[in-house]
Amino acid sequence: MSYELDEITLSQSIFYYLIENRELKEDDEISLYKAYTENENIMQLVKQQGNIAKSVIERYGNIIYLIPKEDNDYLGYSKKNLKTALCKSGSTDKDYYLSQFVILTLLVEFYDGHGSSSKTREFMRVGDLLNSISDRLKEGSANADLESEERDGLAFSNMLEAFEALRSEEKGSRAKTTKEGFIYNILVFLKKQNLIDYIEEDEMIKTTKKLDQFMDYNLLNKKNYHRVLAVLGVEDNE
Q1: ∠ at Cα 188 (184, 192), nearest 5°?
Q2: What are residue 9's phi and psi, to 5 degrees?
Q3: Are 130 and 109 in contact (CB under 8 A)?
Q4: Using DSSP, how many helices (H) and how many strands (E) does the chain show?
Q5: Number of neighbours of residue 46 by Cβ within 10 angstroms
Q6: Which of 40, 54, 66, 209 is the most buried (most CB within 10 A)?
Q7: What's the pTM value of the predicted model, to 2 decimals?
Q8: Closest CA to 83 of 69, 68, 70, 93
């Protein structure tokens, strides 16, 4: 397929904008947004550039997102970088997987994958999230055996050990060596990614439009939803 020079130029402008901002809103750059949504050639060129850069370009509602693929350590986060950002100094893989479990638990608490929208609640208290994490880890560890953990890679016993190794202090702790501080740093990280609104003074968590749209377009895909449930050790009764 041949492309016009102005189509190539516009596609490069759109992709560079996405590299800088990670999202393109209709209200912010209407000319670039219309070029992408109204010209199939430009859309395909942008998607091709995203694919080369190990990323996916998707439009959810009136916002176009650049989403790095899982193995994209340049535009996304490597396991090493995430471990540094989310876990205590000298952390192990147990701590890293615990941090990912915390994020998955938060997602399941807000979204259930059913209905016209996957969202089921408007806010959540930090204390409730802590209790949910503890309960799910204990239940998963009690129901899992060593053979299944080695086969499925769901080491509930290791994550529970890492969680219980964290000290428990009064609310307000910021240290990654405490349960409260561990959760706090994960929430701050998610807030910086514009995925949640974390109101510290009220210890309240809300999701953003960005996360809501992403989850509606992806979690409502039953294949993805069952993958999340499987990791958490939750049975889907539907």
Answers
A1: 170
A2: -65, -45
A3: no
A4: 11, 6
A5: 26
A6: 66
A7: 0.76
A8: 93
